[in-house]
Amino acid sequence: MSDGKPRILFVEDDIGKRYVIARQLRVAGFDVEEAATGEEGLARIRPDHQVAILDMKLPDMYGWDLCRRIKENPRTATVKVLELSATLASAEDRARGLELGADCYLVHPVEIVELVAALRALIRLRKAEDDKARAQELFLGALGHDLRNPLNTLTTGLELLAGSGAVAEEQRPTLERMDRALDRMCRMIDQLLIFTQSLHESVPVKRPVVDLAELARSVVRDAAHGSPRPIELHAEAAAPVSGDAGKLMQLIDNLLVNAIRHGDGPVTVRVAPEAGFAVLRVHNHGRPIPAAALATLFEPYTRAGGRPGGVGLGLYIVAQIARNHDGSVEVTSTAEAGTTFTVRLPLAAT
Asked: Cα-Cα-Cα-Cα dihedral of 14, 20, 22, 26, to 10°?
């Protein structure tokens, strides 16, 4: 909000219509930002816009195409969209607009009192959703924080017991299983905390140049000590990217843990520059991911095909980190070729 006023983005190419409606909305107490084309609207929209009002026939795109792009962007997905049209006014048009992602659809000419009432209803809905997301964030953050202390106590006690000399040799395997279970619990808590941070985290504007190949070497080196299966790394050439080293290492670690947990035989990690991108591939053999699960694999709280282990946040976090670095992640999985997760990040100029 600006000075306590709800922020509205109004995208309309008819300057006269835009002037009249924007002026009326400002009188009604809204902070209105204007745009004349779909591309200008995309350039101007920000997460703190409560509602975007979209004309349906813009010079460069239809309003429902603009709506789709707003909703697909994780930074603006919570912005409510009100579509407004004088020509696409049939019941079928209104239904299509709503089915393609709009939160409200009005036919022009519309009385200002109705437009204002619709905007205020959407703003109330947005606030309720934000409050719910904030409550979830606080709950998960508190849960992760409160679980750390007893887990640290258990880990310390287990280390002392293992090094005390009072443990019989036949009891060592039990201690090792307990240690692995504690490590798994710590990873789950870390995933929860990273997830809560991602709910409201903005994309950094400037990032240092780091070598994705070197980060992969570091992650693989640490993971190899406790891995039940061999890890093969192929990273002969440097792959510089602009990024947060800690988050990129988390991305690599999540993919590596996923491959170790759900595959058979060795895990292969490859990093190389390809056609303007630093490309990371993590491959394993084993049971393929069901085709029906691929569409939702990178959504939160999802485990492919009901596979056990974790809380279903690891791949969601991978996708968010890749997206926040202007990159992408995809997966292929067949019984013959195995499963490969591929991350592409733009190469940095060196």
From this structure: 170
Beta bridge partners, 273, equal 278
Q: Are 119 and 24 in contact (CB under 8 A)?
A: no
Positive or negative torsion for Cα 329, 334, 340, 342? negative
CA angle 265, 268, 272 (to 5 degrees): 170
Q: Give the pairing type, strands 7-11 and 277-285.
A: unpaired
Domains of the chain: 7-110 (3.40.50.2300), 131-198 (1.10.287.130), 209-346 (3.30.565.10)
The beta-strand segments (E) located in the chain are 7-11, 31-35, 51-55, 80-85, 104-107, 209-211, 231-234, 240-242, 264-274, 277-285, 328-334, 338-346
With beta carbons less than 8 A apart as the criterion, state whether 272 and 235 touch. yes
Per-residue pLDDT of the chain (350 residues; tens, 9 = 90+): 456 799 999 999 999 999 999 999 999 999 999 999 999 999 999 999 999 999 999 999 999 999 999 998 888 989 999 999 989 989 999 999 999 999 999 998 999 999 999 999 999 999 998 888 777 766 766 676 667 767 877 888 888 888 887 788 888 888 888 887 787 777 777 777 666 666 555 444 457 999 999 999 999 988 887 678 899 999 989 999 999 888 899 899 889 988 988 888 899 999 999 999 999 999 999 889 888 888 888 887 665 545 545 556 788 889 988 988 999 999 999 999 999 999 999 999 87
Q: How many whole angstroms separate alpha carbon 263 and alpha carbon 276?
A: 30
Query: Could you tell me the two tokens for 92?
Result: 């079928």
